[in-house]
Structures are given as structure tokens and as C-alpha cells.
Hints:
There is one protein chain. The chain has 16 helices and no strands. By secondary structure, the protein is mostly helical. The protein has a single domain (65-363), classed as Tetracycline Repressor, domain 2, CATH 1.10.357. It is globular and about 75 Å long. The termini are far apart. It is found in: Mitochondrion inner membrane. GO terms for molecular function: 4-hydroxybenzoate polyprenyltransferase activity. It is a multi-pass membrane protein. Its cofactor is Mg(2+).
Amino acid sequence: MPQAILPPHLQTTPPRHLALTTYSPQSLAYHTTIKLLSTATTPAPTTPPPAYTPPTTGLLSHLPPSWIPYAELIRLDKPTGSYYLFFPCLFSTLLAAPLTSTPPLTALSTTLLFLLGAVTMRGAGCAINDLWDRNLDPHVARTRLRPIARRAITPFRAVVFTGTQLLAGLAILLQFPPACFFYAAPSLLLVATYPLAKRVTYYPQFVLGLTFSWGAIVGFPAVGVDLLGNESAMAAAGLLYSSCVAWTVLYDMIYAHMDIKDDAKAGIKSIALKHDAETKQVLTGLAVTQVALLAGAGIASGAGPAFFVGSCGGALVTLGVMIKRVNLKSVKDCWWWFVNGCWLTGGVISLGLAADYGVRYIQQDDAAETA
């Protein structure tokens, strides 16, 4: 191929200077400035958040598509909250049962009613929470795809659905002795107002504790204990309720660490934000408070060694292990301990109470036979 003929003033220029000499200093400055401006003003590519996809595994995947948003609204696929609501009911039933020599079958049927009520009322509470938070949830990564936030359910339909759940909860409550209605009804005020707490205080977990722990009181009238006429039982119920409040604040503080960054951006208050730097110290204080109050409830109700060793000792060990090992900077780790801590601590407290109830029931039965 013929070579290109250069202009006379470039024919003697060394090749390595050729590219520079073909431009004037003004031309170089112009092109360099344009390149820098172009780079500075071009936004960095961002990865869009994943879009909603219907569940392909688990319980929800077997439901009709039109039912899935409502199942998600009541967290049917995340039952841990229902268990946390149920455990205080179970604790109080087992703690109160020896006071009235409640037969095991009666205690079991009462426990199953409480479990059904916990699932129903927890679902209603989740729906109420999502209605209050429908303008906040879209700004938090973990909640932005909730049914109301993504507009899969309108607020009106959510209200109607919640009303249906509350009626179902009332039907379950009416299966208990009549006194339970008067003890349980005030909890509805807490269920309805808890979502507001995160807007006005850094301690909404305390309000959640007041709400989720209510079953620690209702278990006593459920097995026939007259709290107003029995000072020891009233003290036991109050101490057990306070212990469960401390437990709720503890586990929900760990839960709140999953959203700590998004909560700060969205202006949502939580105890995790307020005490981020000293979270483990706060958790330790809550654990000691919880176990001390639990022991006080046992003393007031006349519990025996099985309770103090199994329930109080077991709770102290499981809570200590959780607080030591949880990685508060890991969303996955916080979630694991929130879910499994429910069964670890709730399980050992329940087993200790059940063992104590069994021992005392046998002793009462033997005493009745020899009388």
C-alpha cells in the first residue's frame, strides 16, 4: 500500500513526538478538559434493587396467587413472631396451673387455644403495623416488598382483612373463662398504637414488650386463678409479665440491628440506633433483669427446684451464649439468633416450668390420695 505523504514541516519529526506535535497546546487542553468533565458528570452505574417475585418454595408457594399477598401480610411464612407471642401465654399457664391443680389435659387444651390465638392476633398486629408504616416500608430494604408497600393490597382491603382477623381472635378469646376477656381486651390498645412508638421514641421495643408479653397475665385467669383475690398470684403474674417485657426488648434489639442503616435514613427510631456502641452491655443488663424477674415470679408462685434450675438457669445460659456470639454487624447472623433464640430461651423456660408443674401435680395428687 502507498505510504501517506506527511506535510513538509512533519517529515523530520521523530515518530514518538508525532502524536503530540499534531495538536497545539490549546487543542490538548480543550480535549483533556472535555474528557475530565465527561468522566466527572457521568453517574456511576447502580444496580437496581431486585423486583418482587412470587414464592417458589415453602408454604406460600402452594397457595392460590390471590391469597399470597394476604399470607405475606400476616407473615405466615415467618412464624417466629407468633411463637414469641405464644411463649408468655405458655409460661403463665404452666406457672399458674399448680395453683389450681389444673389437670394436664386442661392445661394442654388451654395451651393449644393460646397458640391459635397467638397466630391470629400476631397476624392482625402485623397488618396494623404495615398499615401505619405503608409510607415508611418502601424506604427500608427489608420491608419495601411487603404487600401494602408494593401495592399488592390496598389499605382499604387490608383494613377489612384485619377486621376479620380481630373477629376471629374474639371468637377464640370467648372459648376461655369469661374473666379472660376483661384481662385480654386492654391489650388491643397496645396492638393498635405500637407502630406509632417508633416515630416518637428510641425505645419502641419497650412498647412492643408491653404488647407481646400480655399473655403472661392472661394465663392465670385461663386456668381459674383469681388474680384480684390472690396477692401471691398477682405478684407472680406481674413479675412474669415484667420478665417477658425485658426478654422482648432483648430479642427485638438484636432484630433491630438488621435495619439499623435503613432506619437511620428513614428517620425510624429504635433502641439499636440509640445504643449502637454499647449494645452488648445493654443486652447483658436486660438478660440479668429478665432472669431475676423470672426467679421472682417462681418464688411468688411457690415453684420448686426444677423451675429454678431448668427455667432460670437455662435462660441464663442460653441468653449468655446468644449475647456473646451474635454478630450485630451481620444481618444474617442477627436473623439467625432472633429465630433460634426464640426456641433456645423460650424452650428451656417452658421445659423447666413443665417439669415443675409435673412434679407439683404428682405431689398434690399423692397428697389427695393419702388425705
